[in-house]
Amino acid sequence: MSLTVASWVALTLVLVSIIVRWAWSVLDWVWFKPKKLEICLREQGFKGNSYRFLYGDMKENSILLKQAKSKPMSLSTSHDIAPQVTPFVDQTVKAYGKNSFDWIGPIPRLLTRGLANYEGEKWAKHRRIINPTFHSEKLKRMLPSFHQSCTEMIKEWESSVSKEDSSCELDVWPFLENMTADVISRTAFGTSYKKGRKIFELQKNKQYMQQKPYKVFTFQDGGFYQLR
Questions:
Q1: Is pLDDT at 120 greater than 80 in this prediction?
Q2: For 57-69, what is each residue's pLDDT tens digit?
Q3: Which residue ranges run through the membrane (predicted)?
Q4: Which of 65, 85, 96, 129 has the fewest Cβ atoms surrounding its Cβ within 10 A?
């Protein structure tokens, strides 16, 4: 009997220690670690909203995105699309400057100077340094591949039109997707999209699965434009 009681006491202590350790790791993840990171960022001169438990800036970000989606964007008045495409980031930068941060849940995201903030010659210079593949001279050498992929796509359109008695309605998006993949395949790997179709399909599915948990932050581009 005493052995049974001792076993139950030992088992209870083990379970309690596991629960306490798990609770501490969760509390550290949702509160203590974010607050430490916030202090560290502020000491380095970054500014932003104070961390809010678990959600951070996610709720405010979602609200601003919904408000932006409800208003059409006139392309004729301004090229500054940031207030409608990334309204919360735009608001944060205006409030705290370019060296700022926001919160994606308990994880801080730095909003600092970089390629996205540069314009003109400065942008071209840094773009060339970061990714020399897309330098104008190298792009010129890729023109034959671009031309071949575009020609094949147009031939497919022409064949569809001829089957439908000189006119038809086409969903161009799948064709453009295939053409883009074909160009990448030809220029980077020296093969056609058709040979690597399975790889591109797997990459597309992987991208979809990765974005699915963050669907609350996504937007449909067409919702911002006046279509009529």
A1: no
A2: 999 999 998 888 8
A3: 6-32
A4: 129
